[in-house]
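Why do we bother with a discrete structure alphabet at all? Because it lets us treat a fold like text: something you can write down, compare, and reason about line by line. To make this less abstract, here is a complete entry for Putative sarcosine oxidase. Read it the way you would read a sentence in a foreign language you are learning: slowly, and without expecting to understand everything at once.
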Amino acid sequence: MESNSEFDVIIIGAGVMGSSTAYHATKRGLKTLLLEQFDFLHHCGSSHGESRTIRLTYPHHYYYPLVMDSYRLWQEAQAQVGYQIYFKAHHMDMAHHNEPAMRALIDYCRNLQIPFKLLGRQELADKFSGRIDIPEGWVGLSNEHGGVIKPTKAVAMFQTLAYKNGAVLKDNTKVIDIKKEGGTGGVEVFTAGGEKFRGRKCVVTVGAWAKKLVKAVSGVELPIEPLETHVCYWRVKEGQEGKFAIGSGFPTFASFQKDIYVYGTPTLEFPGLIKVGVHGGEPCDPDKRPWGAAVMMEKLKEWVEFTFKGMVESTEPVIKQSCIYSMTPDEDFLIDFLGGDFGKDVVLGAGFSGHGFKMAPVIGRILTDLAVHGETKSHDISYFRIARFRITSMI
């Protein structure tokens, strides 16, 4: 086999997780190949767009060290590339004071000694100068660990740094099979275009396509459901624009109700527009996208009108952007070895369930650890093992 077809690690899928893995692999001097089935920076998956929230508040304690590490790693990488990816802001979680999700967040902050303020309706209105309202009986949990990540810029950043460190990047290269290589070990990766690459290790980070690819190469049926979701941008009314801008004190935010989970960010990417969306979507085949209507739009309009006290136009969002979630049943990640005949030669990073982007720098490092050392000592990933689901091979 030609030397330019042999690599220490082959990474399949060049979204944020795969690109971050390529960055970390090349930092360690590994000969790295990053493959993408579409154009780089495409809009068909989960890693495109203009903003993602980064927040520390989670109902599960095992995310705390991952997010804290990611804050540092985002800043470290952006310093190397020379442009800004992470924009700091406070974060606000809002819900009824008896809502289980809110009680879990309060306990989380207390147990981990995260400084926070719990605000009633009037206190919250005072803190944000009347820009945010909540119903009676609700509370707001405010902390300083929020912010906005620029996703397309972030993916480009990791790819740029990986390329500068010697990675080979190939887009429009769809992988159709992975086989265990006998004799010297490692794997062979086959593409739809007839190319074949050999790698000592392989990392699969193909997002919504993970279920299809993993089943094709191993027979394992992963419990990942692709959902089509939408990001919506709403026009701030004339004269009010500065009140919602990044850097004005306006926070990233999340609002929990039994039937709708709303999230959003301050105005940043589109002047005069604020991003507010619903967490969730409709099941879809990523290869046959319906590019359908946004879910729960009427409830979202009501939320925008009430929460922003009429300062944001709630008749209709002016921009709608579609993307895909890759949901697991418990909304936790899948970070593990594929196992079976592949043993530890194929590493899987999948099922990031609409909330993993913020942790991409540390997840890329963990996936590299697994590929290089067969383990990671930096973080406890036992919560993300495939074995927590009852999965058997179909082959």
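What the structure line is telling us, in plain words: Helices lie at 16-27, 64-81, 100-111, 121-127, 151-164, 210-218, 297-307, 360-373. The chain is about 25% helix and 30% strand.
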